[in-house]
Structures are given as C-alpha cells and as structure tokens.
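Section handout 9: paired folding examples.
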Amino acid sequence: MNAKLPRTRLVLGMTAGLATVALATGLGAAQAQDRKPQPPAQPAIVQTSVLGVDAATRAAQAALDAAEKEGQRVTVAVLDRSGDVRVLLKGDGAGPQTEESAKRKAFTAVSFGQATSALNKNAQGTGPTVRDIPGTLFLAGGVPVAANGGPIAGIGVGGAPSGDLDEKFAAAGLRAIGELR
C-alpha cells in the first residue's frame, strides 16, 4: 500500500496543478472579455496618392485642345489634393482673369470631391455658406480626379463664355487620363 501512496500523491498533485492552470486561464479569459477593445494605433506616417506630372500634363493639354477646337481661349489648371498647382496651361489669347478662375475651380473640385457645377446649389443663400471658404469658386468648370475612393486632384478651366463649356473642357481632360485606381 505504501507503493500506491506516492502514485496517489503524484496524481493528486498533477490534478491540482491542472486545476490551477485551468482556473488561471479561465480567469484570464474572463478578464480579457471584460476589457473594451482598443482602437488600432494611428500610423505615424500616412501615404497619399498623387497625380503624376505626366498624367496632369496630359489632362491639361486635352482640356486646352478641346477648348481650342471650339474656338475658346481658356486657361487650364490641375491642382493636387493639397491645392498646389501641378500644371497650368494658359491658352493663346486667354484673359488675365482665367488663371485665377481655373485654379480656384480646380481647388474647389478637389476640396469637395465633386464637380463645381454640382456644388453651386450649396453656395446659395443670404447667410454664411461654403462660398465663404477662401480660395473656392462655385462656378461650373472644375472636376475632381479620384483614385482609391477619394479625390487626388482637380482640373479647372476658366475663360469660356459659360461655366458649362469650361466644365465640358475639364471633363475632356479627365477622360484623357482615364479611370485611375
């Protein structure tokens, strides 16, 4: 019987040890369930998409060509997501006001991610509106360039006798660079 005593103690000791581990694991799991999930840490560096200079130049030239084909003297501006000019083409005979108009239309389109003609209705009213934001211009003639689900650039055209024509030419520039991903 003495030979069975150490074996019994061994079995009891192992059982107690397993029970302790199981209890600790169960408590740890229960505590983990009580904790609220933490949001993922924000990255220190964020990368963004930028329209390359070749594509920006192609878009601007296509918009200018479309305007010249219809006898219109315009300026075309392509701005990046930060509002910086990537390309500016001033057509022969374009008026001095066309540069600022094209840049502001491109800025508005990329800032809001919509064509400026669609934004015009939000700029109406007697009180404060989006038209009060510095650098914006809510006349037709600006279109956004989108990639990866968001605006990365804006194409603005200024100088045609109507915003509809300016926007038509800006859309020709957008078509020249195709669908971006």
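Moving on to protein 2 of 2.
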Amino acid sequence: MTATPFPVSEIVAARRPHRKDAARNYDALLGAAREAFAEHGADASLEDIARRAGVGIGTLYRNFPTRRDLFESVYADEVNALCRVAVELADREPWEALTAWLNRFAGYMVTKRAVREALDGESDIFQSCRDSMFAAGGPLLERAQRAGAARTDMDFGDLVRMVAGITATAFEDDAQRDRVLAIALDGVRTTR
C-alpha cells in the first residue's frame, strides 16, 4: 500500500489549525468529543467536552461553530486514523493485517454510531469518508484473498457490513465483542 492521500486526509488537514497551540486545543477537543460521544451518544454535553479537553467553551465554538461541525470533524478524524492504520499494517502478513484493521474498525464503530445519530448522512464528508475507508481497507482484504487467507466469494462491502452488524449489537463488555468478532472472522478465513 502506498502513502497516497485519501480524500478524508485532505478534509482533516484543511480543518486543523496551523498554529501549534490552536492545533493542540483542536486535537484535545476531538479526543474529548470522541470519548464523550462513546460514553453518552450524540447528546453529550459540549460543556463537558470543553472541560475534558481543558479548554473553555469559547475555544470549542471557535474551532467548531456548530455541533454538526464537531460531529463531522470527529467522524473524519476517526476515518483518517483508520486509513493511516491500513497503511501501517500493509507490510504484515495478509491475514494478520486484515484482522488487525478490522478490530480497529470495530472500535471505531462505537464512535460512529453516536455521530451518525446526529448527522443525516447527506454530508459530503460521509461520502469522502466512505471512499477513503474502502480505499484503505479494501486492499487489505484483496491481499488476504490473493494470499489464500480469506474467502474470495465476498467483497469489502460485505465484510464492512458484517463487522458493522456485529458492532451494532449490545455486548456485556469489549472482550465479548472481540470474541464474537473473532468467531465471525473465522468464517472469512480460508486457512487455519
């Protein structure tokens, strides 16, 4: 896999401030929002997010004038991180690379659900994020298929839907979710 920029990378770079202190606050707000959305869903308090980030509410609004701006930025940042992970995993053994990425994808789905609730899906960012995710993860599946490690009667869209379905289910804890995901991925794997 090459380091070709994904569409979402450009969105993330364009939104991130250039000054170091402003970029630090922006990153802290994204991290705090990600945590708050995972814990409280789309109704997470903006004041709580600012407090978690160690900044004032004015700094939050300077970076994200609307709640939607914050949701979109968190979503784009998460997808951008998934794309970077796919590139980092490209040198690993094909099955290991694919499953490592899918496990990261499963964790991302928790945040995505909260953000998706708040957005209507009509955002241009959603399409760029989807395109980027398929461009990052699709080659990992194709590589595992060429190596004979993954079944060839499926495509990346099938795999994403399977993992998304699993992560949409309520689990007792992350360990149970990881076990169920591992069981499902055993159905994708062709070699043992």
